[in-house]
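2 proteins. here.
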Amino acid sequence: MPKRVLQGTVVSNATDKTVVVRVERRFTHPLLKKTVRRSKKYHAHDEANTAQIGDAVSIEECAPKSKTKRWSLVPQA
């Protein structure tokens, strides 16, 4: 089964080797037929501490690294 990959924006990099990424999804409301935006924050592992606040990054799911981290940064090519 392939790993899920999400795109988002870094909102915090205060902790060591960890970034908080906000992932936004858009969908049409079933009754109102209006486009709705919802976002969720994920804690992701950043081994080299390279991501800065405001960066657009991709994250992929991985084995649990800590109590809250189940995602890791995808290295940019």
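next one coming up
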Amino acid sequence: MSQSLVKNYLHIVFSTKYRQKLIDESIEDELYKYLGGTCNNLGCPAIKVGGYQDHVHILCLLSKNITLATLMSKLKANSSKWIKTKGDAYRQFYWQNGYGAFSLKASEVDVVIQYIANQKEHHRSKTFQDEYRAFLESNQMEYDDRYIWD
């Protein structure tokens, strides 16, 4: 083939360090736009970004020119530096070391968009830890609960 055609939908999830509830209403919209802009600038078009007080969800297309590890490193480093400029309340802001990234079929994209849009409602009855474990289990990923919450 003379042409490389790639369309990798990713649902990325990561949390604040120690799941601190630092993503409040005064910063969330701007943070989500910043994360989406970072994805776009790296050639990974953001489709939907959202989350809740202690974590974010990003639905994007992974570029054929960047690795997932590079995307995650740049997303976390750049957004962490940026948010620390937003006031004293964010000076100690850090992301958790790890992340989850789950591939999607094109037919699942609309469902994930709605899922991300409804995070506040969703987390009235489910913690981030329960949500994340459910993602891991539904994707048949082996994990050790002792190490996913650092």
